[in-house]
Amino acid sequence: MQKRKFQFLSRGLLKRIIILGIGDIPIRMAKIAIKRNINVEIYGGKRQLKNLDQNGILAIKKIQESKIKYKILHTLKSYKNGPYYNNPKNTVIFSFGSPFIISKELITRYQGRIINCHASPLPEWRGGGGFSWRILADDRRGNSCFHLVTKGIDDGKILLQKSYIFPKRVKFPKDYIGYANSQSAKLLPKLIDKIINGEFFKPIQQNENKSTYFPRLDSKSQGYIDWSWEGKFIKRFIMAFSHPYDGAKSFVNNKIVRIYDADFIRTKRMEHSFMRGLIIRKNNREIFISCNNGILKVKESNLKTQSELKLGDRLFTPNSKLEAALKIRIRYNPSGIVDEKKNK
CATH 3.40.50.170 residue ranges in the chain? Predict the structure, then answer.
């Protein structure tokens, strides 16, 4: 397939970068651009105020300390000096987990000069579900990808990308996020300098025949363990909803139990479904839970419970919780999750 060349701006015309999103990569991008005498503005949503940088420090605090211009908004159009109002001819927009919907109007206004960062091997894994879906699928392929924003979901032409495999030490979603950020950060100087110097890109068209999409998730409403699953899938589910999220959940005596890590031990002696969820062994450091085709070994340090767990207790999740987790479609606005009833 022939690749058409694409130029954002002629050499020396870039004067302003708008960044949509609060976090580690937006901070790194802003610092690189400022060193190159480019004006930077960051726009984020209220729900991003708890986002952390690579050192576990609140990103908004680092932005404030660096004296980078920023605004926390409910909508982009609500700010009269924002991207919908100022002259965009010398401006490029970057989206790093943007809390705002990037409208067709904005794309047209900036003549396509809007770039999104996505950490997956596009066109696979489109959507905002993060790394939890890939942990569920046991897919350890990483890809730092910068692509043009279109009115579709993560389907714009790819400008720059770097593929890698997540190392074994990467376990929890927070680890995936941190490692992916470190890889994306390596591409930032090259990307900015190509735009500043007026260089041409050769965008790559995504192959729609390989595309997949997965929606956003919410650990509070969807992180319930289904004990009918095979043990290896329960382990993946636990990891997918672990740090920095609320943990995978079930109940003992109607009290919530949260699990953040587990090892699966396969054995045919636990085949019968009536055994599932039972605590069959316990010591000072670990509990052992019977599950489909094996045992889950969970360290006490990886548990949060509202009451003491005892031998013979059963972890159980009501069908009402499991069905609700499957039915709900999670949607966010810049302030947080949108009420499901309003989504219908």
Answer: 16-210
